[in-house]
Amino acid sequence: MDNSTKEIIENLIKKEAALRFSLQELPPFKVEPPRKKEWGDVSTNLPFLLSKKLKKSPEVVGKELAFGLSKKDIFEKVEFAPPGFINFSLSLSYLQESLRKIVEEKSEFTEFSVGEERPVQVEFVSANPTGPLHVGHGRAAALGDALANILSKLGFRVEREYYVNNVGGQIERLIKSFWVRIRQLEGEKVDLPEDGYKGEYLVEIAKVFKEKEKKDIKGKPWEDIRPLLSRFLINYILEDIRGDLHEFGVKYDRWFFESEIYENRELSEALSFLEKKGLLYEKDGALWFKTSSVIKGEKDRVLRRKTGEYTYFASDIAYHLNKLKRGFYKVIDIWGADHIGYVPRMQAAARAIGYPEDALKIIIYQLVSLRRGERKISASTREGEFISLKELLKEVGKDAARFFFLSRSADSHLDFDLELAKKQTPENPVFYVQYAHARICSILKKAKQKGLFALPEEVDLTLLENPEERELMLLIALLPDQIKEAGQNLEPHHLTVYARNIASAFHYFYTRHRVIDEERKTSLARLFLVEGIKIAIKDILDILGISAPEKM
User: Fold this and answer.
1) CA 544, 547, 551: angle at the middle one, nearest 5?
2) How far is Cα 552 from Cα 547, in angstroms, rounded to an integer?
3) Contact status, residue 427 vs residue 163, Cβ threshold 8 Å
4) Eight-class DSSP state of 457
5) Cβ distance 406 to 146 under 8 Å?
6) Among positive and negative, which fits the CA dihedral 404, 408, 410, 413?
7) Angstrom distance (rounded) from CA 390 to CA 134
8) Cα 349 from chain centroid?
9) How far apart, in whole angstroms, are the C-alpha atoms of residue 348 and residue 296?
10) Contact 510, 439 (CB under 8 A)
């Protein structure tokens, strides 16, 4: 597609600044919606930034730029606004042309080539195979999958990956807890380890184990039993995780097992690499990474304990070296809030093993609280008290769950109202957006039955000029910018906001104007408009992994 609206404006500003002030290079400036809608459609802060460089007041710079830009056909109005902004209102002709483009090009209107097929990896969820996925994992799944969809739309070659921690202390505690549950089913009076997993799900898996594994394991030494238990348990839990993610609309290109790092001697390779760079040392019988020499103020971290056991950090360094060797242009890790303290050391390790600047991006998502009366529901897998993703999907469905998970920025705490998510009313945001799409489908079907259709070039879009129609055309014109900014900032929640805004604008328009009117030319123009809205809504819902029903 051609440049987006904001890119067109940015280029016009650059050319005008070069012409007026002989400036070929400008400081990084913004083109974004102003704080108040009545000020215009978009605004720039360039006059404020240029005033010091040009040794002129922001007003002088701004008015001179505004005068030149006001002559461009794309703008209806260009005004300087103190202390150093220019506000732009787009012309009706430009908005009508943007509408024509989205209807004629459909999804190609929001297809980009900025990614240039460069490979990007998004690693998300990656929950330890110690139990079912809970709602927090659901937020990570929605976030990672939507982000991967956006980056694909921008032209990157995206690989989705799930990292399976199937080695280490947590797995050992899980296997021992599972063994206790099996023995309890056989009538033995044994207690769970103090730090074991108490969830009832292990009892259910133990019953399946006893039914499927007919082998007599009584009296056999732990060394013989453990591999069988481990293989059965982890495979069972992973199949459950895969099933839940499939129901949630999430598919991975690769499931990477931590054990692969040990089997392929990649951990030894990573440690050898760091040792050659002088970033390892031994102290108190343990092996340490000199984090402090890579990032000032960060503490050195243990990679191998004095017991000889390697830490998760050691495995993560080897895993990220593996990613680097696979040649990704950018690696995006999505982690829960409990890992926030882990970020600096991982960034230090990435720098040490050769990641280019900004090649590793770590997104931290905050906790999810479920509202069901006054009762607070824990998300502790080990204690076994949580609402699983499976239960959530059964109660509210995939579409509502994904929309609610994506309704806030990842770094904001999310309050998930289960009752609201089930409502079939305009209060429920996902219902509100989907209903707009279904209503448009109904309008278009009715129009077809009445014989109201025409070739795009036969439709007179100059008839679309009232405020409600203008607002809808503006939202359509800014759709490519919304997608690009969501991808550049790695913030899919902007698209749920956009979806609600365009649905709201459509519903408001529909209450004030007849689409299928007595005047044929007006009807055809408005049908063209609602077709554009339909395309925009469906495009966004597809990116978010949410269905766009034609009937509700």
Assistant:
1) 150
2) 12
3) no
4) G
5) yes
6) negative
7) 8
8) 25
9) 10
10) yes
Pick the CATH number of 5-90 from 3.30.1360.70, 3.90.190.10, 3.30.1330.60, 3.40.50.300: 3.30.1360.70
CATH class of the domain comprising 425-544: mainly alpha
Q: Which of 284, 294, 338 has its CA nearest to residue 312?
A: 338
Rounded to whole angstroms, how far apart are CA atoms 479 and 536? Answer: 7
**SS3 assignment, position 284:** coil
The per-residue pLDDT string of the chain (552 residues; one tens digit each, 9 = 90 and over) reads 557 999 999 999 999 999 999 988 999 999 999 999 999 999 999 999 999 999 999 999 999 999 999 999 999 999 999 999 999 999 999 999 999 999 998 877 888 999 999 999 999 999 999 989 999 999 999 999 999 999 999 999 999 999 999 998 889 999 999 999 999 998 899 999 888 998 889 999 999 998 887 666 777 888 888 999 999 999 999 999 999 999 999 999 999 999 999 999 999 999 999 999 999 999 999 999 999 999 998 999 999 999 999 999 999 999 999 999 999 999 999 999 999 999 999 999 999 999 999 999 999 999 999 987 566 766 554 454 568 899 999 999 999 999 999 999 999 999 999 999 999 999 999 999 999 999 999 999 999 999 998 888 899 999 999 999 999 999 999 999 999 999 999 999 999 999 999 999 999 999 999 999 889 999 999 999 999 999 999 999 999 999 999 999
SS3 393: helix
**Looking at domain 124-251+366-422, what is its CATH homologous superfamily?**
HUPs (3.40.50.620)
Q: Which residue is it, tokens 């089997």?
A: 263
pTM: 0.93
Q: Which amino acid is at 222?
A: W
Structural contact between residues 128 and 163, judged by C-beta atoms closer than 8 angstroms: no
Instruction: Tell me the two tokens of residue 487.
Output: 């991808």
DSSP string, 196-224: S---THHHHHHHHHHHH--S--TT--HHH
Amino acid identity for residue 422 in this structure: K
Check: CB of residue 482 under 8 Å from CB of residue 409.
no
Q: How far apart are CA 53 and CA 531, in angstroms?
A: 47
What residue segments make up the domains of the chain, in order of their start? 5-90, 124-251+366-422, 425-544
SS (H, E, C) 230-268: HHHHHHHHHHHHHHHHHHCCCCCCEEEEHHHHHHCCHHH
C-alpha pair distances (Å), 131 with each of 227, 248, 469: 18, 17, 51
